[in-house]
Amino acid sequence: MAAALWAACGALYGVPAQVSAQPVAPSTAPAAPTQLRDVLPDAQRLGTARLTVWGFQVYDAVLWVGNGFQASAWTQQPLGLELRYLRDFEGTAIAKRSMDEMRRSGPIDAAQSERWLQVMQSTFPDVKKGDRLLGVYEPGAGARFFHNGKPSGAVRDAAFAERFFAIWLGAQTSEPAMRDALLAR
Length: 185
Hints:
The protein has helices spanning 2-13, 91-102, 110-123, 158-169, 176-182, and strands spanning 19-22, 44-53, 56-65, 79-85, 132-138, 142-147, 150-155. A hairpin with a 2-residue loop joins strand 6 (142-147) and strand 7. The model is unreliable at 1-19 and 22-27 (pLDDT under 50). Helices cover 31% and strands 27% of the residues. It is built from five helices and seven strands. It starts with a helix and ends with a helix. It is globular and about 40 Å long. Helix 2 (91-102) runs antiparallel to helix 3 and helix 2 packs across helix 4. By secondary structure, it is an alpha+beta fold.
């Protein structure tokens, strides 16, 4: 969604986005979202980053992981990615751009792409300034999503989940500075 949001901004204004992502100074250490308890009972914040587009602050991201987390093997470990929005966005725009970003990791056939897009469009709500979205990655199983602490959907497809979280954590991310900040590099 990192790139999803800046691209949505770019589409609105018809110009390429100028994007920056930088670590965010942690405030007093907040407790992990309760929605992580079943997957990450020992959840701890690993890294944070703020996505800024054309000088506009878009969201703050927090990566939640368990003890012993290894960044080089992120696809094999459960994690939570929380986005705290600093502006409003439509869920359908987030879903479309997310699909574009998921293709950065490699080709996705048209039928699969359409299925994943439909799932994201039905799962991702419109967000307002101050809203929180939490994605929970469950290796080999899929992903669950929460909007302001309430379930917004689940995708029981391991390939989808890995591609989706690779938007931020994969080697082909369009936001390497955000990746580095989230993985505390």
